[in-house]
Structures are given as structure tokens and as C-alpha cells.
Amino acid sequence: MKIIFTNPKEESKEPKKSRWWIAYHLLIGIILYSWIKASGLYELILSFFYIGSDHKSATFYGLMAALITLLINFSGYHLSKKVIKSIKQSKLSNSSQKRFIILFPIIFFIILGFLFYIPYTLIEKEKAQKMKYSYFKNEEENVVTAISVENSKGLKESDFNLTTLKKLEEFYTKRMKQKVDNFLIKHGYTAKDLNLRISSNSYYINVEGKKIAVIKIKIHDFGNSVFIIGIIGNDLIKVFCSWENYKEEISIFTGKCGKEIAKAFGISLPLQYMN
Predict the structure, then answer these.
(1) How far apart are the first and last CA of the chain?
(2) Cα separation of 143 and 241, whole Å?
(3) What are phi and psi of 210, to 5 degrees?
(4) Is omega for the bond preceding 270 within 30 degrees of 0, making it cis?
(5) Are 241 and 248 contacting, i.e. CB atoms less than 8 angstroms apart?
(6) Which of 64, 198, 217, 244 is least enclosed by beta carbons within 10 angstroms?
(7) pLDDT value for 193
(8) Higher-confidence residue: 268 or 214?
């Protein structure tokens, strides 16, 4: 009878993991992290942990960012291990298993690429809605409006032609420039500061049978203004709208300015017009 002596430690000793397999699983983790980062989900998750901009809050935010990054990569790593284990335990031939293992990172990347579109679209849509809401909220709060009514002094709606329009544009552009110059001089600015960049444009709109002149004036780095001028009977009606936000145009068809135009000219909102 032959007796074979074995070392219990050697029996329980598992084969060392290949470094290539570790790199393989890490790659899947990196792909998953990259997808979550690119899709905007990473920032969305982190937004729940933003509590302020002080030192303690920033430290907490940084720790949570590091923890979430580790969790995502850890999830991808173990997902890869489970998938590879399932492949090896399957009834596929060795050659088919090898092909699937080689192609899995590419397949995983393509699947995530398709899934990327869904959250990205939803997040971008939400951002657009927030920006739109923010714009109208700021416009309602910060646009300054004024309505004036005076005698038209014989000016009729039929006199509203291109020559009249250009004269109105020139007049109100010079007027706005002078007002801004006076403001700057009053607050101690020099002549160099008065060299402001001004752009303007004008056009007519026909709303509910009324011909109305629109003059838009942008003073860069200072603000936006709109003059809306029309005639009803013997009255020359002017609506003035101004906003310090020179990057965003003032809407004359909606918002605070639109409401003032509708009130001044007795028309309905939203404005429907024909050039």
C-alpha cells in the first residue's frame, strides 16, 4: 500500500490571479466610469452631496466624489468578473469563449454607447428647461419698462416707411448713447470709457392690423434696450424696455415687455405678427 503525504497548505493554496485578468476587469471598470461621467449622471449624483462652498463642505464634496469614483470602478470590476465566470462555465467551445472574452469590452462599450444617448438627452432637456425658466424669471424681475403717450402731431401710420424707420433708429440710438455717456461722466468715468460699442437694428411688425416700429439697441457691456412705437388715432404710443443683460435679447412677444406692449396697443398675447 502506497501512502502519499500532502501538505494541507498546498491543497488550499489557490492559483495566483493573472495580472492580465486584473487589467482586463479594471478596463471594464474604467469603461463604466467613463460612460457615467460622459452621460452627466456622475455630476447628477454628486449634486446631491453639494451643501455649500466653505472649506468643510468642499472637503466633504471631494471625499464623496472619490468614494463614488471608487464604487463605480469597483462595480465595473466585479461585473466583469461575473460575466467572464459565466462565459467559462457555459457550454460554449473554448474558441467561442475566447472570442467572446476578447470582444466583451468592445460589446460592453457599444451597449453603453447606445445607453448614453438616453440619460444624456434627458439631462440636456432638463438643463434647457431650467435655462429657459431662469431666463424668463430673470427677465420678469430685471427688465425695466415704461409706456408713454403723446400727440402724434400729424404723424400717421401710413408715414411708417423705411425712411421713417431709419430716422427713428438713428434718433433713439443717439439718445441712448447720450444717456449712457451722461451716466458714466456722473460716476467719474473718463472719455476713454465713453467709447462704447453700440449696435442697433429696426423693423416693422404688423400685429392685429397695427403697424408697429421696433428699434433694438445693444450697448455692449452695458445693456439692451427696445423701443416699440405705434400710432392709435392721434396718439403716438411708445413702449420702452431695458435690461442690463446685454448678452440676451429682450423678447417683445412674451414676458414682461410683451405684456406692456399688449397693454399699450390693446393686443393679445402671445403676439402673432406678420412682417
Answers:
(1) 109
(2) 7
(3) -105, 130
(4) yes
(5) no
(6) 244
(7) 67
(8) 214
More confident residue, 1 or 88: 88
β-pair type (223-232, 210-219)? antiparallel
Q: Tens of pLDDT along 161-197?
A: 999 999 999 999 999 888 888 877 887 776 666 777 8
Q: DSSP letters of 18-45?
A: PHHHHHHHHHHHHHHHHHHHHHTHHHHH
Instruction: Spell out the alpha helix ranges (H) of 143-188.
Output: 162-186
Percentage above 70 pLDDT, the chain: 77
Band (136; pLDDT cuts 50, 70, 90):
very low
Centroid of chain to Cα 131: 6
Is residue 75 within 8 A of residue 29, CB to CB? The reply is yes
CA angle 129, 134, 140 (to 5 degrees): 130
| Cα angle: 187, vertex 189, 192; to 5 degrees | 160
- Please, which residues have CB within 8 angstroms of residue 232's CB and are 6 or more apart in sequence? 210, 265, 266
Burial class of residue 7 (count of CB atoms within 10 Å of its CB; 0-12, 13-18, 19+): exposed
How long a stretch of residues is the chain? 275
What does the angle CA 134 – CA 35 – CA 26 come to, to the nearest 5 degrees?
145
Q: Which domains does the chain have, with CATH numbers?
A: 16-140 (no CATH), 145-265 (3.40.1000)
At 255, the amino acid letter reads G
Identity of the amino acid at 180: V
Inform me whether the pLDDT recorded for 31 exceeds 50.
Answer: yes
What pLDDT does 153 receive?
87
Q: How far apart are CA 38 and CA 68, in angstroms?
A: 15
Cβ proximity of 187 and 180 under 8 Å: no
